From TrEMBL:
It comes from the Bacteria. This is Fumarylacetoacetate hydrolase family protein. Keywords: Hydrolase, Metal-binding. Residues 94-300 form the Fumarylacetoacetase-like C-terminal domain. The keyword rRNA-binding does not apply. InterPro entries: Fumarylacetoacetase-like_C, Fumarylacetoacetase_C_sf. SUPFAM superfamilies: FAH. Belongs to the FAH family. GO terms for molecular function: hydrolase activity. Pfam families: FAA_hydrolase.
Length: 301
């Protein structure tokens, strides 16, 4: 199941990708046609209702397949719409985990840079864009724009001081994030926020896959390609701090809420790690593919 947010005729709608992946079912419209009232209007609203919504969407999809003629009004071709980020405007900053793959920490420094504790920074909500939307080059601000392909957690229910053994119960699903970074700003300011928060530098998507549809998120292959060339190629079992620990640490004194996004860290192979560095430039296309999730694609403009 792939849940998405799309724009069609100036309306922003929540949908589910149908089996052949060429069509999308408009969830609100399908619910109306099937006789349901008060179905959540946005994907964030769906997430806020809890994991039961996944079962409701399964039933809606089954209804649409069994009632093809009646459901036709709620089914659109993918090529007719614009995919947005699944949560186009997060309610708070995107949480990001730094240096969470040992080889990435080493490529940006040395073995001494491998962290002993979870490193956390954030990206402003205004950074978020969707699949195939353009990443602004920001040439007046940076000459060192870099890519970082990451598995992202979507929190599904409110929690604080979450024990590790319960942490995965708080996950609604997974998506992909490109943590685009201005390395020179990051270095200049001695902190991550400005270098991580330029507008359009957080592509997210193309959709959210519910947790129940991802067999083992700790063993997913993640690959980043720039203009077709593989730059990053790893698996999520290489994370220094696994997903349950990340959630537990973040929530230790801070409330996590439905719709919160957590980028879990990037593998080795970022542009800054090459000698000489290979930063992004106008016209470059970045594709991040994660097994079982999909492919997020964006071009720098």
């Amino acid at each position: 199941m792939k849940l998405l947010t799309f724009k069609k005729e100036n309306q922003i709608l929540a949908g589910v990708l149908m089996e052949d992946e060429h069509f999308v079912l408009d969830l609100t419209k399908a619910a109306e046609l099937s006789g349901q009232d008060h179905f959540p209007e946005t994907l964030l609203d769906c997430i806020k209702t809890g994991n039961q919504i996944v079962n409701d969407i399964e039933k809606l999809t089954e209804w649409a397949e069994a009632n093809e003629e009646k459901a036709r009004e709620a089914i659109y071709e993918v090529k007719e719409m614009q995919l947005l980020a699944p949560i186009p405007r997060p309610l708070k900053n995107v949480f990001c985990i730094g240096k969470n793959y040992a080889e990435h920490a080493i490529e940006l420094g040395s073995k001494d840079d491998i962290p002993e504790h979870v490193m956390v920074f954030t990206k402003a909500p205004t950074t978020v864009i969707g699949h195939e939307q353009l990443i602004e080059a920001h040439e007046s601000v940076t000459s060192e724009l870099d890519y970082e392909g990451e598995l992202a957690i979507v929190i599904g229910k409110k929690g604080r001081a979450i024990p590790r053994e319960e942490a995965m119960d708080y996950v609604f699903g997974y998506t992909i994030i490109n943590d685009v970074t201005a390395r020179d700003l990051q270095k200049q300011h001695k902190q991550f926020f400005l270098g991580k928060s330029l507008d359009s530098t957080c592509p997210v998507g193309p959709w959210i896959v519910p947790a129940s549809y991802v067999e083992d998120p700790s063993k997913l292959r993640i690959q980043t390609r720039v203009n077709g060339e593989v730059r990053q190629d790893s698996t999520t079992d290489q994370l220094i701090f696994p997903l349950d620990e990340i959630i537990s640490v973040l929530s230790s004194g801070m409330t996590l809420e439905p719709g919160d996004l957590i980028a879990t860290g990037t593998p080795a192979g970022v542009g800054k790690g090459f000698k000489p560095p290979r930063f992004l430039k106008k016209g470059d296309t970045v594709e991040i593919e994660i097994e079982g999730i999909g492919t997020l694609k964006n071009t720098v403009e």
